[in-house]
Design goal:
Blueprint: H1 7-22, H2 27-37, H3 45-55, H4 65-78
Helix pairs in contact: 1-2, 1-3, 2-4
Length: 80
């Protein structure tokens, strides 16, 4: 894992907070994940791997329209 990578924090937050309560991300939780990944301005390979792992568990049918748009944009822009 690269120095400064937030991959572990992304996984911890996702499994202990965001997905633990309802199995989905709300707008605020998704925003927090994005901010973690972009803390240093770059989404490194470890962060991408962590995000792919977490995003694979998200039931996209339960995302709000705002979260779905942000989710799709983030995934496309950073190839997650």
């Amino acid at each position: 894992m690269a120095a400064g990578s937030k991959a572990r924090e992304i996984l911890n937050y996702s499994f202990l907070v965001a997905l633990a309560d309802d199995g989905c991300f709300d707008d605020g939780e998704l925003s927090y994940i994005k901010n973690l990944a972009l803390a240093d301005g770059v989404v490194d390979d470890s962060e991408k791997q962590a995000l792919r792992r977490v995003f694979a568990l998200v039931d996209e049918t339960r995302l709000s329209p705002t979260a779905q748009t942000a989710f799709d944009k983030f995934r496309g822009e950073y190839e997650v």
